Amino acid sequence: MASRNTGFTFTLIGGLTAVALWAWWPSPDNPMGRVTRGLDLAGGAQLVYRIRVEELPEDQRSIVLAQAAEVVQKRLGILSEAKVVKHGSDRLLVQMPSADQQAVEDLKGQIRKSGRLEFRMVIDERSDRPELYRRAVKNREKSLPPPPGTRWYAVIGDTGVKDEVLVDDRVDMTGADINPQRISVTHDEQFRNAVSLEFTPAGAEAMDRIARKAFPTRQRMAIILNDVRALPTEEERKRDANAPGRILEQGICYSAPAIQAEHFGGKAQISGQFTQKELADLIGVFQAGSLPAPLELERQMQAGPSLGEDQMAKGIRSCLWGAGLVIAFMMAYYLLPGAVAAFALVLNLVLLLGIMGGLGATLTLPGMAGIVLTLGMAVDANVLIFERIREELAAGKAIAQAIPAGYDRAFITILDSNLTTIISAAVLYAMGSEQVQGFAVTLSLGLVASLFTAIVVTRAVFDLALGKGWMRGFRTLRILPETAIDFVRPAPWCMACSAILIAGGLFHLFAIQGRDMLAVDFTGGRIVQLRFAAGQRIQDVRARVARILTEGGYPEGADAQVQSLVPAGGLDAGAPRDFQIITRNLDLDQDRVRELARKALGPALKAAPSEIPGVVPG
């Protein structure tokens, strides 16, 4: 009979499967369920932001643009396939896959936050400038603005605005004085959600310097978040190298506590009536850092898939064929054990999609190929196990001893092969961009799922079959007879051939193909927009664009991406009229492309194609 351990294992498998199905939640109308499809499969929102860099010297604008792109990408998270690329000299292009209107609004709100944390002194009767406070109060009674260099802030409390304070525009400390690795969730004395901060050594010194001055009168300090400031002018920078710039838009005052000590020990706390989402957003903004310059939403569109329906169908079909052939081979060659391995593969897919749905990860076409690769690695583990079991049976062991021995002997080999891949994924996570980090996380989770199904699930099925007396043998096909080939003897020749092939491949990669093999994500390129007088099928536009670019002397025309564009807030009736062409050719002559487009598409075009400033690598 089956052991109690087998019963516990099946309970664990059933529980994990139920949780995975809930997280995935597929349906006939939406087989991907809660798994978000990427820009290549489903399109998404497209936002163009302009960065206010007019007051900066020319040589600093590219640096600020790169910093802004990095901060925005960090805020989007490592499991999101949202793209953030530099767009011309002063713009960012943000594309978010499969986004509904609420998700887009949340994204815009997250990007809009400046992420600027400021500590500024409150001016009141207890401050060193009480006369300035009295003048501000009189001005407010007369509906006049406060004295220059000050402004009123509402302090947000448990039930809304609980106080209003006059705050000095001078910044005493900023988020740069906080250690981003030492930010955590905690609770204050009233058990409200709070964010615990730890200052850098310089920040701790500055805080204590402020406290020594403010403590005798218990002066209050305002904690201001998300003030939008203009970049300091040249004159302001000459007066003060650390000038913060004028305030364009007020943020929020989360707290204005009185200074209660002369020494803070390098720590502080922001508390309030935060929801869990607000708390997560707040921590995310702090950890991502401050935007180096204000952002301004210039345009919002809904972009269609970057792949055509035919390309998506081919890619999905190839993935299904690959997985199907693997399962068919296992069942044909290993018979009943192969059917057990096929069941484990299907369960592996369910668990992986459940993990992706639960984590909010995004599935792209390369990601689907990665899933097939994960399934192949899981099959590799089963092949090793089955071959070890056959060796144990050939050595004269009974089936009840051969199966545990086969799993024990194959385990270390399977662990080594998967561990090396996980190490590679860890390197990708540590050194890669956010998109690469998302791939690394998904790959690692897929490997963990494959280890679980290939080792734990199949072993549990075999243990159950043995315990019930259903399994009396381990019948499989054997195509090749027993061999006695010395595979180690020709190792030097094989290593030499491998070295030659690797060297030849690297030479071809860098010396011959070079930049031609890189996609627009690496090389940058240009975007040309087209508007038609009537709706068009994207397949027709994609085919015609590829043809006119190729015939016009641009061989990469067949690789150009064509996306449909729909104004934000609703879909066009019928087929889309606006499209954009993304090509990696930075040397593309826009006037020539416009002329080619007019010749091939002129009767259908409503206006001449417009070229958007070149997209450069993000």
Shape: globular
Radius of gyration from CA coordinates: 31 Å
Low-confidence stretches: 613-618
Q: In total, how many beta strands?
A: 21
Helix tally?
16
End-to-end separation in angstroms reads 60 Å
Class from helix and strand fractions: alpha+beta
Mean pLDDT: 77
Helix content: 40-55%
Report the portion of residues in β strands. Answer: 15-25%
Strands ordered across the widest β-sheet: 2-4-3-21-18-20-19-16
Per-chain topology:
Layout: H1 4-24, E1 36-37, H2 39-42, E2 44-51, H3 58-76, E3 83-87, E4 91-97, H4 101-112, E5 117-121, H5 130-141, E6 150-157, E7 160-168, E8 173-174, E9 184-187, E10 193-198, H6 201-214, E11 221-225, E12 228-229, H7 234-239, E13 247-249, E14 252-255, E15 267-271, H8 276-288, E16 295-303, H9 309-359, E17 362-363, H10 365-394, H11 399-431, H12 434-468, H13 491-513, H14 520-523, E18 525-532, H15 538-551, E19 561-567, E20 578-583, H16 590-601, E21 605-616
Helix pairs in contact: 1-9, 1-12, 9-10, 9-12, 10-11, 10-12, 11-12, 15-16
Structure described in brief:
With 618 residues, this protein is an alpha+beta fold. 49% of the residues lie in helices and 19% in strands.
Task: Please name the defining characteristics of this protein.
618 residues, alpha+beta, 4-stranded antiparallel β-sheet, 19% strand
Structural features, described:
With 618 residues, the protein is α+β, with helices and mostly antiparallel strands. The chain has helices at residues 4-24, 39-42, 58-76, 101-112, 130-141, 201-214, 234-239, 276-288, 309-359, 365-394, 399-431, 434-468, 491-513, 520-523, 538-551, 590-601, and strands spanning 36-37, 44-51, 83-87, 91-97, 117-121, 150-157, 160-168, 173-174, 184-187, 193-198, 221-225, 228-229, 247-249, 252-255, 267-271, 295-303, 362-363, 525-532, 561-567, 578-583, 605-616. The strands form six sheets. The protein has an eight-stranded antiparallel β-barrel with strand order 2-4-3-21-18-20-19-16, surrounded by four helices. It has a four-stranded antiparallel beta sheet with strand order 8-5-11-14. A three-stranded antiparallel beta sheet has the order 9-10-15, with helices on one face. The longest helix has 51 residues, at 309-359. The two termini are 60 Å apart.
